[in-house]
Amino acid sequence: MSQPTAPDPVLLTTDGAVATVTLNRPEGMNALTVAAKTALLAALQEVHGDESVRAVVLTGSGRAFCVGQDLREHAALLEAGDPAPLATVHEHYNPIATLLATMPKPVVAAINGTAAGAGLGLACACDFRIGATGARYTTAFTGIGLTADSGLSWSLPRLVGAGRATALLLLAEPFTTEQALEMGLLNAVVPAEQVLPAATELATRLAAGPTAAYAAVKQSVAYGATAGFVDALAKEDELQTRVGRSLDHRMAVQAFLAKQPPVFQGR
Ligand code: T3D
Questions:
Q1: Which CATH class name applies to 211-257?
Q2: pLDDT score recorded for residue 3
């Protein structure tokens, strides 16, 4: 008799120009096993390189968005003396967070439920965060004797300020959706069943926008986060010169002058 095959830990679906990447281990609160991290990396690489995809939604199935590293698998690997746990930041979390943050198109996190550890880090690497009422959040890392990863040391201070980020990371205390909204971590809060529809609606709107301009905005904001003013101006010059040559720019200016709504083709 054949063994039942495990469901895919990550699902990738596309609808028009919107791709949805779903963490799919609902029974394990979408905790990240090696298989899940490998599949997530592959899905993000695919949407990154696919020019027909112009906006991405990242979400979870079941009651959690993602509770970070799967600690059962992690403990078993540590116990077995396997080097995998110590290499996972380099091999998985860093490339996953990099793909989300540098995706040349907008990424919307549909935070359908609990987000902890690297799960919170992945959400914070996205461009927008829509959270569910009643969800819980925690940085979690110091609770198990670890430090921040998946970009949280970079993204969290930028979203909520250095003082709050340091407290959230040091204390690893749980906080609510309402607190996350008040801190500026979330862009919007809706009932759990409306999180994915709301994120998809936003992504659909973004997918009909000037994709090259969006990519340049993301690049310049990331650059400006660590650059001086004069260098930031030089980066804006470089990017504006590039985007100014795009078809979308030319067509949108013509549409404006003709008093027509612009139709963006994403190039
Ligand atoms: O080297 C490296 O690997 C570095 C990489 C690090 C990346 C990281 O993400 S480190 C941080 C890992 N995540 C955590 O430490 C979070 C641990 N979980 C919690 O603090 C809480 O479970 C939550 C706040 C997330 C949720 O609390 P609550 O009360 O809603 O649920 P619960 O009852 O605690 O958990 C429900 C089940 O999920 C439970 O299993 P059970 O008892 O029903 O069989 C619990 O063990 C399981 N679970 C929750 N988080 C994880 C997990 N199982 C495995 N890994 C988890 N991360």
A1: mainly alpha
A2: 63
Q: What is the pLDDT of residue 207?
A: 98
CA of 65 to the centre of ligand 1 (A): 12
Q: Which residue from 23, 71, 171 has its CB within 8 A of the most atoms of ligand 1, so it is best to mutate? A: 71
Low-confidence winner among 1-15, 99-113, 249-263 (lowest mean pLDDT): 1-15
Q: State the chain's maximal CA–CA distance in angstroms.
A: 69
The full set of domain ranges for the chain reads 10-207, 211-257
| pLDDT (average), residues 190-204 | 98
Q: List, in order, residues 6 or more apart from 32 with CB less than 8 Å away.
A: 23, 40, 66, 68, 69, 70, 92, 118, 119
Fold adopted by 10-207 = 2-enoyl-CoA Hydratase; Chain A, domain 1 (3.90.226)
Report whether residue 250 contacts ligand 1, using a CB cutoff of 6 Å. Answer: no
Query: Is the shortest distance between the CB of 205 and ligand 1 below 6 Å?
Result: no
Q: What is the pLDDT of residue 86?
A: 87
